[in-house]
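User: Before I run my own analysis I want an independent prediction to cross-check against. Here's the chain; please return only the structure tokens and, at the end, one sentence I can use as a sanity check.
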Amino acid sequence: MTTSDEDSATAEFITAVQELLSARENVLSYDIREATPKSALVVVEERTQNERSTHVLYRIQQEVTPQNREDIHLEYLGPVDEDETP
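Assistant: Structure tokens:
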């Protein structure tokens, strides 16, 4: 994969991540910290059940399912310290 192809694939994946996060009701904002064509580290500001907000870190990955379809998977990595929030 050339640098141009990789940049294009990364941009496509970032668009998919943005669409996924925009569709989630509890997401207030997000900051994509790092991205490759198949994964991203994202700090997400989420609304909690008691209507407060919290910042958490997710790894979002594109995976191939057993049915040979590409799927995006969110992996919760934990809360983010206040000094690391956007």
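Sanity check: Strands lie at 27-35, 39-47, 53-64, 70-79.
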